[in-house]
Amino acid sequence: MKKRSKTATTVTNFCHAMEQIAPAALAQDWDNVGLLAGDPTATASKALLCIDLTPEVVDDAIVKKVDIIMAYHPPIFRPITTIRADSTDTDTGVFRCIAHGIAIYSTHTALDAADGGTNDVIAKLCGIETTEPLEYVDRPGSRESKVVTFVSEKDVEAVASAMFAAGAGKIGDYARCSFRTNGQGTFFGGETTNPTLGQRGRMEFIDEIRLESVVPNAALPGVIAAICDAHPYDEPAYDIFPLSPPPARGIGRAGQLSEPTTLKKLAQRLKRKTHATCVQIVGDMEEEVSRAVIVVGAAGSLPFKAGIGKGDVIITGEIRHHDALTIRRHGCSAIALGHWASEHPTLAVLADRLGAALKGIKVAISKADADPFRPA
Questions:
Q1: Domains observed in the chain
Q2: N or C: which end of the chain has fewer CB within 10 A?
Q3: Which residues contact 231 (CB under 8 A, 6 or more apart)?
Q4: Burial of 191 (0-12, 13-18, 19+ CB in 10 A)
Q5: pLDDT digits (tens, 9 = 90+) for 325-355
């Protein structure tokens, strides 16, 4: 068992830091991200970052006696039935890590979607300052609701004040927030009713104000009780509308280059900055490009959501043959840096961010992690 250092952090702390940088909720629904193996309570004084959990990376981790590996690509991706040391699949690396007490965390498409993640790193290398995602991610769960009630003008302040006192109306640093709309309510009171306005037994048309305010879900019971207590009507009407969290920036990026350039110059720049060795080009090298659509790894059809056309360049890791033909039909061009090469630059940025967020842990990038492709 490893001894706990007074300055060391834990695997859980590392996971929390990764969650702040690249929330798991941003990952694609088919992905497998988070802590894949290991003891959350274990000490973590050394972390190793890589793109792929290859045998060489595991050897590197064992020699360096690291406590956790952040493997960008999940080594456990689909359901598995065995974890064997003699396997030719990625589970052999998982087995060896477990045997040496090394935890495994994967981030993959969560980091692709996150601000400052893989796609933003490539955008920065292109000189792009402002980007938009190719899609947005709906964040699950509602923490707030909008409560609406209807009250006469003379009583609206009393009801609003009661709602505010119970926890309604807080938006950021602002308090007592509400919206009020004039309208007309109707009712027909039965024999057992005792209407505050109008009379029972006949159709009534009453001028009212629609009063609405945002309420944390935890405060809903108290706010509803406050409405009922402060409202002059014997049967106050109110509605509760759950509020969906605003969508988060999703996968992919699109943005204008700081200044137009040729496809050749941009490809050479990216090849130099990413150290890519197997760059492929789709299009005329002398084409002028002014906007980039970035999807690290494998682009697939995702770039086509950006409305590509003349002057656009898709920057990715790998492109299928028929997608390359589609790109040319759109009058667009593309730079394929290689799958690994398009993702690897983010590790240096991630190492700096983790180092700043976690005290007592040494974060390094595995030099054993390498592009499986070589130039001819």
A1: 9-114+346-365 (3.40.1390.30), 128-136+250-336 (3.40.1390.30), 144-243 (3.30.70.120)
A2: C
A3: 149, 151, 155, 159
A4: exposed
A5: 999 999 999 999 999 999 999 999 999 999 9
